[in-house]
Amino acid sequence: MFPRIFTRQFQITSFRLAEETGTKLTKEQLRKRELRKMVQRRLQAKTPASDHPLYMPVSRALRYLRAIEVGQPASQQTITLTTLVVAERGVPPLTGNVSFGKPLKDVKVAVFTNDEAQAALMKDKYSVHLVGGSDLVSQIKAGEVSIDFDKAFATPDIVPQLASQVGRILGPRGLLPTAKKGTVAEDLEPLIKDSMSSVPFRQRGNSISLGVAKTHFTDKEVLENLLATQKAFKQSITNQQTKKPSILSQTTLTSTHGPGIVIDFA
């Protein structure tokens, strides 16, 4: 009987030899290989960011990124955060919304309602981009109003008309208000408050990338947005319905023309 350590080493060597020679692995070997890779990714996720050769504190990283963006168009100087996600197979991707203290841009909101009181509130207090009822729906259907808004909300009374008349126009753009998406309510004020600074995110592949600031933001504003992003990502993990939730791993901060710099985040 070989000692356990030699048996384990023999299995690992056999896997690697099979990969190098192109030998077809059995289902059990593939399962063990995937398990081994997952263990390695989880261990790597727990490694302190400061151990990475490209690590910098956020304040220093911002100095480098700002210097690189000097002379570039202001509209392109976006700071983006990318976080690797370690997840078991079959676990749903992380999704959610981040409410920034300092939004990257003004969000254009459209409100559909036949309630005159709600419409007046949206215009006077929140200065939303577009407000209207049945007449607005007809104008969009006829192509008389440009669909240049980023988000849309509605009161229940107008939802059937929206779905039947402009569903095929707004739906493919992700702008059709629905109760399922949380964009329909009797009282729209709480939704509007959140939407003005809220940005959606979704895991793509094994990472989440999200614009979190502009290079002209102060260090404090960038840090506040990073903390808000961290909170939203972790809340998304908490909401996962699985026995083995995802883990946030290596996180980099970059600018439109800059390199990726590893920071403390997860």
TrEMBL record:
GO CC annotations on file: mitochondrial large ribosomal subunit
Family: Belongs to the universal ribosomal protein uL1 family.
Superkingdom of the source species: Eukaryota
Keyword line: Ribonucleoprotein, Ribosomal protein
GO molecular function, one term: structural constituent of ribosome
Residue ranges of the TM segments: none
Keyword NAD: no
PROSITE patterns: RIBOSOMAL_L1
Naturally occurring in which organism (per UniProt): Kluyveromyces lactis (strain ATCC 8585 / CBS 2359 / DSM 70799 / NBRC 1267 / NRRL Y-1140 / WM37)
Swiss-Prot/TrEMBL GO biological process terms: translation
Protein's name in the database: Ribosomal protein
